């Protein structure tokens, strides 16, 4: 484990997941006594301090509404690794991002203009609009919302099994959402 590459889920004092940070940032929050380790890995990072998996802030912090960045990773997660033209599912390295309105025509890098697209469909569409290329989107691209932000956070939750009870509600479990 490396403090710069290891990721840590950060919970508000109310146990609401608010972000993912690096282990290095997590250690800074612990040392400043801003957060406590809620879950940890079975390995010491420093004498007496385990590698954190989940942190909880000591004091409630009001988080302003913010939308996720329209990054490649976030767009692929939103579209569930599915080409928005041919409906095929692909590995992330086999997908590209397509500007529905091409950049050459003023198309922006926004949630509403970017879709996941396989290489074959992207080459065929080229520098045209879907209508000009005779292609239809299987789903209209949606802008990022608070629900998109939560979906992205949950999708990233697969990185660490200890995050699951903080990111998902399981009505069949006694640990529904948060075990306090």
Sequence stretches where pLDDT stays below 50 over 5 or more residues: 173-180
The topology string of helices and strands comes to: EEHEEHEEHHHH
- Strand order, largest beta sheet: 2-1-4-3
Class by SSE composition: alpha+beta
Task: Tell me the distance between the termini.
Answer: 28 Å
So what's the overall shape? elongated
Number of helices: 6
How big a fraction of the residues is strand? 15-25%
Radius of gyration: 20 Å
Largest sheet features: 4 strands, mixed
Q: What's the overall average pLDDT, rounded?
A: 86
Helix content: 10-25%
- How many independent structural domains? 2
Strand tally: 6
Q: What is this structure's SSE topology?
A:
Blueprint (H helix, E strand, L loop, with lengths): L6 E5 L5 E6 H9 L3 E12 L2 E9 L14 H7 L16 E5 L14 E5 H7 L4 H4 L12 H11 L7 H4 L13
Parallel strand pairs: 1-4
Antiparallel strand pairs: 1-2, 3-4, 5-6
């Amino acid at each position: 484990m490396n403090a710069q590459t290891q990721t840590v889920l950060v919970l508000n004092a109310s146990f609401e997941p608010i972000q993912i940070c690096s282990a290095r940032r997590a250690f800074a929050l612990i040392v400043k006594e801003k957060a406590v380790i809620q879950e940890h890995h079975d390995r010491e990072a420093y004498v007496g301090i385990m590698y954190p998996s989940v942190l909880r802030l000591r004091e409630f912090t009001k988080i302003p509404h913010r939308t996720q960045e329209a990054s490649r990773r976030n767009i692929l997660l939103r579209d569930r690794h599915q080409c928005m033209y041919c409906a095929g599912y692909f590995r992330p390295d086999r997908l590209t991002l397509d500007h529905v309105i091409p950049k050459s025509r003023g198309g922006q890098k926004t949630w509403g203009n970017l879709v996941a697209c396989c290489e074959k469909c992207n080459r065929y569409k080229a520098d045209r609009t879907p209508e000009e290329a005779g292609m239809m989107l299987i789903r209209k691209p949606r802008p990022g919302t608070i629900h998109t932000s939560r979906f992205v956070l949950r999708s990233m939750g697969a990185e660490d099994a200890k995050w699951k009870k903080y990111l998902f509600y399981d009505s069949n479990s006694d640990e529904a959402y948060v075990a306090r």
